Amino acid sequence: MTLAAESDVHFNADQAEDNWVVQTGTLKGLDSADRKILSEWLDAVEGIDTVLDLAVRPWNIVGAGAIFGVFETGKDRASWLIVRYGQRWTLARCSDGFVSDVSISLEDVLGLIDTP
Questions:
Q1: Backbone angles phi, psi at 33, to 5 degrees
Q2: pLDDT tens per residue across span 51-72
Q3: Fewer Cβ neighbours under 10 Å: the N or C end of the chain?
Q4: How far is CA 26 from the centre of its chain?
Q5: Contacts of 41 (CB under 8 A, 6+ apart)
Q6: What share of the chain is helix, strand, coil (3-state, %, to 5)?
Q7: Residue of 108, 107, 103, 71 whose CA lies nearest to 90
Q8: Residue 108's CB: how many other CB atoms inside 10 A?
């Protein structure tokens, strides 16, 4: 369970143009307190392989401060997306389109992730 920090990560969604992802060890959408919360959660949770900063992708979401993909172990696609807008957080589950209520806490949103 790590914060991905490889500079050569890229995505090719449905044979579209490659989207290169910046080195994600920085997680630029998080302040130091949120980085600590995420790091501690990753250390404690089972079944999660990595969290990638996906904010550089062309999401067309004006004002989104952070967009992270949460990847389950052994899966090559994100199982959840975490979005920060201003000081609010929300979680989207990729398998069925579930979107959580808005929270003011990253910790609360991480608690919604149902791992095996």
A1: -65, -45
A2: 988 876 666 666 667 888 999 9
A3: C
A4: 13
A5: 107, 110
A6: 20, 30, 50
A7: 103
A8: 13
